[in-house]
Amino acid sequence: MDRMVVVVSGPESSGKSQLCQELSAALSLPWVKEYARSYLEQYGPNYDFATFLKIYQGHIEHQRKAIESSQAPLIFLDTDSVHYQVWCQRVFKQSNSIIGSQMAQEAHHHYLLCKPDLPWVADPLRVNPSDRDQLFLEYQEIIQSRQRPMALVSGQKKERLSNALDALYSFDLADSLKTQIERFRKY
């Protein structure tokens, strides 16, 4: 089954997970949680490059299984390889060919890129409270350089969800998905 994959991306504390949850609930569509967060919550926040690559491989497998097992016409991902590329460049000051190759295989991904216009929420796994705007630009540059469909999402609370639905509607959606969005908007 062909399905649309929509990645909710952006810097730390930009509302990615919350937006995935809200879109999933609004449209009765599945979403895939961020793998790195689960891993680091279980094993602790310290990691080296080898562990980073282990986390990335776990991420790929986690998303692959979720996508393959879904029968939905659209699935939301809380991050994808773009996230790992930015992370690798930031922490290890390098790009990685494994990540680059995987990004090439993710050419069908569409992006909702979250602006960092929400208040910073401290968390033991978050480390970039002061440079979220720069991180946002790094995400945007990678997505644009790969010529992927992308829409920016901003706003607070219900406005953010509404803006995300508008952005989603602008993608080349199946009529049934557009109908779902229209139905949700009536309520």
Polypeptide structure, described:
The protein is an alpha/beta fold and 187 residues long. It has one domain (4-185): P-loop containing nucleotide triphosphate hydrolases (Rossmann fold, 3-Layer(aba) Sandwich). The chain is 55% helix and 12% strand. It has a five-stranded parallel β-sheet, sandwiched between helices. Helix 6 links the parallel strand 4 (109-114) and strand 5. The longest helix is centred in the N-terminal third of the chain and has 21 residues, at 49-69. It is globular, with a radius of gyration of 16 Å.
What would you say about this model in short?
The chain has 187 residues and is an alpha/beta fold.
Number of helices: 8
Report strand order across the widest sheet. Answer: 2-3-1-4-5
The name of the CATH topology is Rossmann fold
- Quaternary organization: single chain
Number of strands: 5
Q: What is the approximate shape?
A: globular
Q: Classify the secondary structure makeup into a structural class.
A: alpha/beta
CATH superfamily annotation:
P-loop containing nucleotide triphosphate hydrolases
Percentage of residues in strands: 5-15%
Unreliable segments of 5+ consecutive residues: none
